[in-house]
Structure formats: structure tokens, C-alpha cells
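This entry is set out below.
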Amino acid sequence: MNATKTLLPLMHLMVDALCACCLCLLSVRYGGAYNILELYILYNVAAFLTQPLTGYVADRCSVERYAPSFCIMLTLVVTALAWFGIGNMTPDGNSMVMYVTITVLGLGNSAFHVWAGRLTTLRTNNDIRWLGVFVSTGAVGLSIGALLASWSLAWLLVIGICTFTLLYLHSERKLPQTTTNSGNSFHKTLKASLQGDGYTEVDASAAIVCIIVVALMALVFLRSMVGGNFNVALPHEKSMILIAGVITMAGKIAGGWIARYMGLATTLIVAVIATALCSLYADSSVVVVLAGLFAVNCTMPLTLYLVNVVMRGREALAFGLLAASLVPAYLITVIN
């Protein structure tokens, strides 16, 4: 379990940093030849919109402990493709290499997130504190990858991902196969008390489960929109990118720990009120904007925890559904 709590969050940071790094490198090289906005949209579709599918597969994979190995393969393929394209193609060369690179990059990201998210849920018994820790590191990874983009960083991240994956696989040998007690039933469980302390089973109809899942997806969409507005309101400085990433990470971590000891309902109410107040006074100060970014991200582990409860036995699919809910908000922001 210690490996789950430490290695997987660090791998999450490195995977997202590698994706951001490769995107920035490709943008610089091909910015004058291709529609970069189109490539970023393609990446986000491949990375997030495919997660329900990769999650569906992950939930049925009897050897999910070896899944990170597939992520290593995708990472190496992406890096090799990008390297080949940078070194051997002119900006007006074959665009197919670019599109394949971006697509595989996104699919590798998708595969890692659903498998690692599922392992985190199962190995910690859906502990909301460690769910928040796992998802939080991606924000800092994206900031690091964007700010320090270079091929040296890309290769260091690949080596780091490979090393940490091997360490995690070694630690997994000592643990039993990850399973749930619900027999992969879609409508077996629902949380009876909102304390964030693991699984509690009660009967729930499929209709109720569907309504709850859709509501949680809608909440993730709204959170993404609000968080995006806070990010846009920040000064467009490189240092602020890293600060925003750290604040986002801190909010996700804090939300899980606060909910564990104060309860989900109390945490959600306080976070929503704080976010609303910061939105109203966002023009007054950068500090207010950062406070709002922190508050809105405190709700992130809550939604992941709850969707895991109602979809027990399909944790990877649950993770993927919430991830896919981010795409509409991203597209709306890009279009505007």
C-alpha cells in the first residue's frame, strides 16, 4: 500500500509532465506548419474522452498489476515518434507522423490514468485522502512539463517513469490480486454515510446509480469551467503557471483530508461557498483568484470518492467517466 500512496502519485506527475513537454516541443517545431490548436484538441480527446473505454477494459483485465508496462511501451513509442519527427521532418512534411504522435501520446495518458486510478482506489479501500493525493500531482506535472520543455527533460521523465513502474511492479508481487467484493455489479453499492472512510454497501437501483453518476459528471464539468475561469483570470506569466499548479495540487490534497475528518457534506458546502465568494471578488486581487482555485479543487476527491462508491467493481470506468466530463469544458474554453 505504501507503494500505491507514493509511487503512483509520482508516476502521475511524470506522465503528465512528459505529455505537456512533448506537446510544447512539437508546438515549437511545427507551429508554423500545422494548426496547433487542432493538435491540442486531438490530444485532449485521445487522453480524456477515451478514458471510459480504457477504463472499461481495465476493469476486466485480470493482470491489471502489469498495466503500467503497457504505459511504458506507449511512452517510449511516443517519444521515439516525436524524436524522429523533430529530427527528420521539415515543417511542411507529412502531417501523419504528427497526428499519430499526438494520438498515441493521448492514449498512453488515458491508459495510465484509469489503471493507476483503479489501483489507488482498491489498494487504499477507496480512502478519499489518497484519492486526492493521487490526482493532485498531475497539475504540477503539467506545469513543469510546460515551463521546462526540452528533450533532456523528456528523456529524464521516460527513465523516471520506467524506473518507478518497475519498482511498483516489484512491490505488487507481495500483494494479492486486486479485486472487489461486488462481482463487478454496476448497481450494487451506494454510500450510506458521507464520512469518506471507504466503502459501505446498500442496495440501489440502476436508475438511481445512473442519476448519481450523471450528476457527478455534471459537477465535474462545472468545476472544470469554474477552475478554467480562475486560471484565465491569473496574470499570464510563467511563474504563475507553476504557482497555479501548486495551488491546484494543494486544493485536491486538502479536500480529501478535510472530507475524511469533517465529512463530505460539510466539505462540499464550505468549498462551494468559498468558490462562489472568490468568483464574485475575483477582480479584486490575485490572492482571491488563487483562493478560489484552491477551494474549487477541494471538491475533486469528493466526486471521485462518490463515483467509486456507486460504481464499485468498475472503478476504472468510474474514473474514466469523470475524466471524460472535462472535455466539454475544455472545448468550450478553446472555442471562446
